[in-house]
Amino acid sequence: MDISQRIEDYAIIGDCETAALVARNGSIDWLCLPRFDSGACFAALLGTSDHGRWLIAPAGAPEIKRRYLPDTLILETTFASQSGIAKLIDFMPLRGDNVHLVRIVRGEHGRVTFNTELVIRFGYGEIVPWVTRMDGVGLRAVAGPDMAELWTLVPLHGENFKTIGEFAVEAGESASFILTYGPSHRRLAQPADAAHLLHLTESFWHTWIGKCCLSGSWADAIRRSLITLKALTYTPTGGLVAAPTTSLPELLGGQRNWDYRYCWLRDATMTLLALMNTGYHEEAREWRNWLLRAVAGKPDQIQTMYGIAGERRLVGMTLPWLPGYAEATPVRVGNDAYRQLQLDVYGELIDALHQGREGALAPDESGWALQVAILNHLATRWSEKDHGIWEVRSDPEHFTYSKVMAWVAFDRAIKSAEIFNLQAPVDHWRELREAIHADVCLRGFDARLGCFVRSYGSKQVDASLLLLPAVGFLPPDDQRMVRTVDVIEQRLLRDGLLMRYDTIKTADGLPPGEGVFLACSFWLVDAYVLMGRHDDARMLFERLLNLRNDVGLLSEEYDPAAGRLLGNFPQALSHLSLVNSACNLSQMKKPVNQRTGKLLAGRIQAATRVG
User: Fold this and answer.
1) Is 523 helix (H, G, I), strand (E, B) or coil?
2) Rounded Cα gap, residues 187 and 178, in angstroms
3) Contact 150, 116 (CB under 8 A)
4) Do domains 7-185 and 262-304+340-584 have the same CATH topology?
5) Is 1's pLDDT higher than 70?
6) Assuming Cys at both sites, which of 99, 391, 396, 601 could form a disulfide with 594, CB separation 3.0 to 4.6 Å?
7) Average pLDDT of the chain, as a whole number
8) Residue 367, Cα to own-chain centre: how many angstroms?
């Protein structure tokens, strides 16, 4: 491959409906249009420049620095060379009728010559469009239903199915480029000028982050994570994608390459609490409403994940023309894990809806009849084997955490019924709750090891077991939990960071090997907080903050030996876990207390202090 950028070399820009990845070298190597889950028109991230990219950069090898403009998703890359200094500003304004991707080059000092190379390839890098000029103001690229128009005064010409150009800026000068996307059957209106779009975009982000109710030593990290989470939210529906990318590997050169451009029920409660506790009640309400719409229907048809509008068929396929990031294949679109039975999602769903009632996001009875039907279905299935939170590709098992989350489902439903006076078969639910608890403590606990195990009859542990106290299943000072944390530390820590499980000793249907899992490492922070190990919690939290790239972004996993981020990027679960761990370490509302019921969430305070 001819793309040498590391995952951590990328930054994200977006319009809250899709997102682009911009490399340090000024190349946009990933962009799906018009939605997160659409086909990519720039797919060099998973192949070569011939699979689509847009490069704007000076010739030679200048010094490069970058940042987001404060409290925005506007990326500023500064190129400094012997001849001068110039800045490249990349952003996507919130859309009206069409999608806009804006790039502005500004001269700061001296004179800097830039090269640009635009390679549009629809259909994930496979389809070469027909390109024509637009009366001296740019070009139009069309292929089937897709059309992109580039508006610029910079002279460009075609060469080997690419559009290239050279231009220079001096101090005080600027050159702008606006790439607009829309359906090919409709004429696209010329967009507003780039400076006006920049002003609108900056104002939007400043207004949005202004709702954040945090201050303190970690406030900058939390605000950056919140902006990232907003960028991963599909505004028309409120759905939150796990990541804007597909097939970035969990092991360089490996096969653990998945499409994360969908919405997981697994993240439901963490998302809701992260939003409510930081002042984003409207976003939390939209997420709650998305959840109810997505699962509406027959309870036995609930899925582990859905499309951003609640779509259910996420059929997987591979793209053989793409060689993969760092030659990690196959490149996948779609995710067949949507077909799996994962019992933990029932607990996440019911817990999220309970927390929504505590946070007064909707009338108390909203969605209650559907929840009762879902719980009646769960009563017939909780004792089955499933594929677990990690979506193993091996045979189903009785995963301990899955059973615990079935317990959570009935526990939260009982609390909702009691606190909000809702009609329900509470006595029957209490019996089920006690039966599940007893089953887990008997079959999910290994007496010889003295700890809970990954699945019934297993001798292995799993990082998801750290969540048992956090969801209220057992107190953190229960000796079984203390020993479980000890064994997890002994077996799963790598250079002070946590694997989700040992892929060498645990068969999951895939070749072994992956990085440490960043969300799980944040869960260890939360476990330390609950256990009163506050110094350990802070040290690990600070270590995790230092793994963010230079613009504050985290992927799914990390390779301690290579010092590389791994997996899809940026990863919502990592940033959600960062926000929730920061809240747990602070004096504000703590998610671990809200989920255990130790403190009722109530209505979130308007302001609090973090760090």
Assistant:
1) helix
2) 16
3) no
4) no
5) no
6) 601
7) 94
8) 26
Q: Report the SS3 class of residue 535.
A: helix
What's the pLDDT score for residue 600? 34
CB-CB contact of 487 with 515 (8 Å): no
- The residue with tokens 């098992």 is 397
What is each CA distance from 502 to 348, 387, 516, in whole angstroms? Answer: 24, 16, 10
C-beta separation of 204 from 597 below 8 A: no
Q: Quick one: CA dihedral 594, 598, 599, 600, positive or negative? A: positive
Give, in order, the Cα–Cα distances in Å from 426 to each of 114, 356, 474. 69, 20, 21
Is the pLDDT reported for residue 199 higher than 50? yes
Report pLDDT for 587.
66
Alpha helices in 420-532, H assignment, sequence order: 426-443, 467-470, 479-492, 518-531
CB 324 within 8 Å of CB 53: no
Looking at the domain covering 262-304+340-584, what would its CATH class be?
mainly alpha
Nearest residue to 540 via CA among 568, 556, 519, 514? 519
Cα–Cα distances in angstroms (integers) from residue 223 to residues 110, 113, 448, in the given order: 35, 35, 45
CA distance 273 to 276: 5
Among all chains, which residue has been given the structure tokens 């900056």? 202
3-state secondary structure of 573: helix
Residues 207 and 218: their CA atoms lie apart, in Å, by 20
CA distance linking residue 560 with residue 543, whole number of Å:
12
Taking 70 as the threshold, does the pLDDT of residue 135 lie above it? yes
Looking at the DSSP bridge assignments, the partners of residue 140 are 132, 149
* 103, 89 Cβ separation under 8 angstroms: yes
Residue 78: exposure state from Cβ atoms within 10 A (0-12, 13-18, ≥19): middle
The Cα–Cα gap between 64 and 553 comes to: 18
Give the confidence band of 356 by pLDDT, cuts at 50, 70, 90. very high
Q: How far apart are CA 549 and CA 276, in angstroms?
A: 26
Domain 7-185 part of CATH 3.10.20.30: no
Handedness of CA 567, 570, 572, 575 (dihedral sign): positive
Give the residue among 466, 512, 505, 469 at the shortest CA–CA distance from 487: 466
- pLDDT (tens digit, 9 = 90+) per residue, 220-262? 999 999 999 999 999 999 999 999 999 999 999 889 999 999 9
511: preceding bond cis by omega (within 30 degrees): no
Using an 8 Å Cβ cutoff, are 401 and 462 in contact?
yes
Domain spans of the chain, in order of start: 7-185, 262-304+340-584
Burial (CB < 10 A; 0-12, 13-18, 19+), residue 477, is exposed
Q: Looking at the predicted structure, is the pLDDT value of residue 4 above 70?
A: no
Which residue, 414, 350, 401, 406, is CA-closest to 380? Answer: 406
Q: Tokens representing 389?
A: 């939170």
User: pTM score, two decimals?
Assistant: 0.95
Average pLDDT over every residue of 262-291: 96
Give yes or no for a contact between 77 and 90, defined as CB atoms under 8 angstroms apart.
yes
- Asked if 462 and 456 touch (Cβ cutoff 8 Å), the reply is no
